Task: inverse folding
DNA sequence: GGATTATCTTTGCATAATGAACTATAACAT
DNA sequence: ATGTTATAGTTCATTATGCAAAGATAATCC
């Protein structure tokens, strides 16, 4: 009566194929999760990327480009976001005495305090949204995603 | 000796927990895949969202808000992207005779031709990037993601 | 029927993201 | 040492995205 579960996951029209369907689900889940995150962080006067940078910053300071590598984005993104975090008093820019090209992104006391107050609830919220999956299923999912991620990364490295 | 596979997937600093780690992988994979897609579509003079809208448009026309529901984004996003697709001649806006509020997004002949020439290669490219996973693993992954997606959607519906 | 309420789209503003160009500094190579 | 190449960060232009507000039209409620 039906080969699919119950409805075509939205995202592509014609005979997507299993891989495309899988990727479409990844896109859609990512989108829904981000919407939730945005909504949660809104009350904290933080955007999603702002919160992310906050998570990478340390009191001692981290080079901006190290953050951009970890966030898989371009340096030029971060300039503006860091500016807004500085305006809110959560991070500072400090020159690296070792290398005068780099500016270190330093978590302020206020930023560390903010993180402490937000992060546990935020992680809790993410976990709750995955309750439809059992612990074992989440673990299985993690392993599959991990393999996929490594495949994508290694194929990128070979130029 | 090690509870984790081999390295903490980047994305959060302190004791992420399995669910957060899994979500982080979803974000990272989505990001890498989108980068590939952007690169692929670049040669076709299309952006990722432009290509997506093209996939939802039909010759008969689809209401803009139907596309935004399927793309999980706001109506207001699409206005500009559709404008650019119109400028490229791939879609048209036509008023709906039934309901004068809606404007139908219609795929032009040129747009349909473009799609025909791009889509197979694009899908092929996506499949290839997932080669690290066996057919069975992809299927397993799809099922887990599908469950997760449905859980997220239903929890959204209950306001 | 007229008022209220809901829906569809666009507009304006703020934030974000990519890519290319540019400045400054560092590392390297002969 | 000097000239070349590489790296770190910013700036700018274009595109995208979300949210709030507004205008037009439709549906609903007495």
Result:
């Amino acid at each position: 009566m039906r080969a699919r579960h119950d409805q075509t996951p939205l995202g592509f029209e014609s005979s997507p194929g299993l891989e495309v369907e899988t990727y479409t689900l990844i896109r859609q889940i990512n989108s829904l999760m981000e919407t939730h995150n945005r909504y949660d962080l809104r009350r904290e006067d933080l955007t999603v990327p702002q919160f992310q940078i906050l998570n990478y910053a340390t009191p001692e300071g981290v080079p901006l480009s190290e953050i951009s590598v970890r966030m898989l984005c371009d340096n030029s993104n971060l300039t503006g976001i860091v500016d807004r975090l500085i305006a809110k008093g959560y991070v500072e820019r400090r020159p690296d005495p070792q290398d005068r090209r780099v500016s270190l992104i330093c978590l302020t006391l206020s930023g560390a305090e903010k993180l402490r107050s937000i992060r546990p609830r935020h992680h809790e919220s993410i976990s709750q949204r995955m309750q439809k999956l059992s612990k074992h299923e989440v673990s299985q999912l993690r392993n599959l995603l991990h393999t996929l991620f490594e495949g994508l990364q290694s194929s990128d490295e070979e130029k």
Chain B touches chain A through 59 residues (CB under 8 Å).
